[in-house]
Design brief:
Length: about 160
């Protein structure tokens, strides 16, 4: 009888210890899960499916615009450029950069191809500054560090970084 009563407190202590461990694991698991679920803000994008033509003057003095011309929506270079921008979303947002996709010969974006002289079969990236002028033109995707370096060297961006 004595052996049974001695084991009961031991079992109670062990149950208490395991309950504490499980509670701690649950709390840590919830905290880690919440941190993993945090989402970064997405960079601003004007996809081709927006259905309306774009007036670039709406971005003047507010945003820099990265025009992404591609022959077709699934163009590998276009996908690479979009992925680069998405991966560096914080830098894109910090620099007030808006991406405008122009795929193929979309009726609502055709005027952009004409305005910037980009043939339908050509991949081109064009950076437009907040002043509305063309700052960069490339026939291949541009690396985020190079793009950010070009933007950061602009006088308007220099003023933004001082504030």
């Amino acid at each position: 009888m004595l052996a049974i009563t001695w084991r009961l407190p031991t079992l109670a202590v062990m149950a208490y210890v395991w309950a504490c461990r499980l509670t701690a694991a649950l709390v840590v698991g919830i905290a880690v899960g919440a941190a993993a679920c945090e989402t970064r803000p997405e960079p601003a994008v004007m996809p081709p499916s927006s259905g309306s033509s774009i007036d670039l003057s709406q971005f003047r003095a507010k945003n820099r615009v990265l025009l992404l011309f591609a022959p077709v929506m699934g163009d590998e270079r276009s996908i690479r450029q979009r992925n680069t921008l998405k991966t560096h979303g914080d830098g894109v947002i910090e620099r007030d950069l808006v991406r405008v996709d122009v795929h193929g010969d979309e009726v609502n974006r055709r005027f952009l191809r004409e305005q910037f002289g980009v043939p339908v079969e050509q991949f081109t990236v064009v950076l437009i500054g907040k002043d509305g002028t063309e700052k960069l033109r490339r026939s291949e995707p541009i690396d985020a560090d190079e793009l950010f370096g070009i933007i950061d060297a602009m006088p308007m961006r220099q003023g933004e970084m001082k504030q």
